Each structure stands twice: as C-alpha cells, then as structure tokens.
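Researcher: Here's a chain I'd like modeled. Treat it as a single chain, no partners, no ligands.
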Amino acid sequence: MDLTSNIVLITGGGSGIGLELTRQLEALGNTVIICGRDAGKLEAAALETGAQAIRGDITLAEDQDRILADIEARHGRLDLLINNAGLLLAYTFAHDPDTLDKIEREIAINVTAPLTLTRRALPLLHMSPNPAVLFIGSGLAYVASRGTPVYSGTKALIHHCAQTLRSQLAPDGVAVFEALPPVVDTDMARVLKSGNLKKMKPADLVHGILKGLRYDQHEMLLGQSSQIKLMSRLAPGFLFRQFAKVEFH
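Model: Modeled as a single isolated chain. Structure tokens:
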C-alpha cells in the first residue's frame, strides 16, 4: 500500500496509538482526520500534528454519518479508515456495581462501532482508487484475560470479523488489514501491571504497522503477539494461567 497523499480517518486519534498513527502518517504527507469524544485531546493533537479534528462519538449512528459527510464534503473520498478507538475495562464481573454498563460500553466501542462505521464508510471508500480499512486489534484476541471479563472477547470477535471482511470486500477492491499489538505503553494500559509482559512503545508499534501496510501484510502480529498466538495453540492452559497472574489497579 502506498502511504503518501492519502485521505485517512483515524478514530480515537487524539491520544495513545491513534495519536502516534496521526504523527507518522501526517509526516509521510497524508491528510489525516481524527475523531473522538474528548475535544481537548483532539484540539491538542490537531495543533501538534496538523491533522483535521472532528469531535464525535463513534458509537452513535448520527455522529458516524456526520463525520463521513464532513470528509466527503471536504475531500470527496476516503482512502484509509483506521478503526483505532478502544476501551479496556478491568473489573470483577459478579461484584462491580457498574458491570452491566461496562459490558455495553466496551462492546459498543470495541466491536459495534468499528463494524458499523466501516459499513457506513464503504460508499466513501469506493471513491478511492485503492481503498483500505485497518482494524487495531490486540494479541489478547488469542487469550482470555482473567482481570478483563469482556475485553479479550471483543478483540477475538474483531479478529474473526476482519478475516471475514477481508474475503467479502476483496472483490470490491477494499483491502482489510488487522494489526494485533501486544500490551502498549498508553494511558489505556496503565491499569495493567504487565508482569512478564513488556509494554511496547507506541512509536515502535506504529512503525511496525506502517511497514506492514507498505508490504500488504494483511494480518500483523506485532511484538509479543506472535508468541501469544503460538502459545495459544501449543499450551492454552499455561498461557491462560500466566495471564491470570497479571494484576490490575
């Protein structure tokens, strides 16, 4: 994939992995649009990187439509949609008073929003000569994490959906990529005491993602994620017990 002169939409582009993607893609000469709910983070990211910021909640259909309409009006096409926004919640399923709300929020942000946004973006993507979608998944798609009752499941679902969409959308010329990072050193991962898991730097992660896009590597196992996938096949019980030792705060 050519990584210059593209119109790129990054959800959750105001912080963490999304912000680093914005930095590196802008530096390559792309036009990057970032969206998110935190106006302050979006404004700061736009000021730093030169990206266009659109405030919006991607779990809401009307905000998805508004964001895409803005891009169509300004640019007339979308070359790359990066479904990056995500939520990781650690809690005790049976005893947390907010469990029901947390289940709904995590599934809405991690699963429903990227899939519905991708569907709504298809007409705009079809206006591009080389359209692509990138899902930011997780190596935790391959192992259940005891401290996060829903997160791993959402990433496993996105992993399977990415594989299916890659096949279904190929005849229409839409390339579907998935990046599966390990634990990354971002604000979202601060609740996790990584133990034997070394947190990957966002800059190193994004460098690996962009390399994978350049070489059309549709499924990118980054950092320790390749080891997690291998262990999930060879010794799934051992892998689960190791992750069960990870503490959250």
